[in-house]
């Protein structure tokens, strides 16, 4: 059976390039999420919780085990206003 050896170079290139793109996307997403897997299907509740986490820990993916909130937590919330039409 004839083997198309000349097709292996582009095949290898395509394989390596897909692998590089996927790995770079993985690294980029994890770097933005403090090394954790990215979140998907985020709803309004999740956004509120991530906003709270950001106010508690400084990052939307950060977590805190301290039972007492930091002092500025009482005043650093954002009051969302109604969007004008
Ligand atoms: C992304 O990287 C993490 C750890 O570095 C690994 O566990 C995970 O399987 C990778 N995901 C993909 C889709 O390669």
Give the tags:
NADH dehydrogenase [ubiquinone] 1 alpha subcomplex subunit 1; 2 helices; binds 2-acetamido-2-deoxy-beta-D-glucopyranose; respiratory chain; membrane; mainly alpha
Characterize the structure shown.
This protein has 85 residues and is mostly helical. Among the domains are: 8-38; 42-69, no CATH class. The protein contains two helices and no strands. The radius of gyration is 23 Å and the shape is elongated. The termini are far apart. Belongs to the complex I NDUFA1 subunit family. It is found in: Mitochondrion inner membrane.
Précis, in short:
By secondary structure, this protein is mainly alpha-helical.
Task: Itemize the secondary structure elements and their pairings.
Layout: H1 8-32, H2 44-57
Bound molecules: 2-acetamido-2-deoxy-beta-D-glucopyranose.
Number-wise, the strands total 0
Estimate the mean pLDDT confidence: 92
Distance between the termini: 69 Å
Low-confidence stretches: none
Percentage of residues assigned to helices: 40-55%
Provide the structure class.
Answer: mainly alpha
Which outline best applies? elongated
Ligands, ions, cofactors: 2-acetamido-2-deoxy-beta-D-glucopyranose
What does the radius of gyration come to?
Answer: 23 Å
What is the H-and-E element order? HH
Largest beta sheet, briefly? Answer: none
| Percent of residues in beta strands | under 5%
Count of individual helical segments? 2
């Amino acid at each position: 059976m004839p083997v198309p050896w000349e097709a292996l170079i582009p095949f290898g290139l395509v394989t390596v390039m897909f692998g590089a793109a996927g790995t770079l996307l993985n690294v980029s997403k994890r770097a933005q999420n403090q090394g954790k897997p990215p979140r998907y299907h985020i709803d309004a509740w999740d956004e509120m919780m991530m906003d709270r986490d950001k106010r508690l820990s400084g990052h939307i993916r950060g977590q805190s085990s301290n039972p007492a909130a930091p002092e500025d937590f009482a005043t650093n919330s954002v009051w969302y206003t109604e969007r004008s039409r």
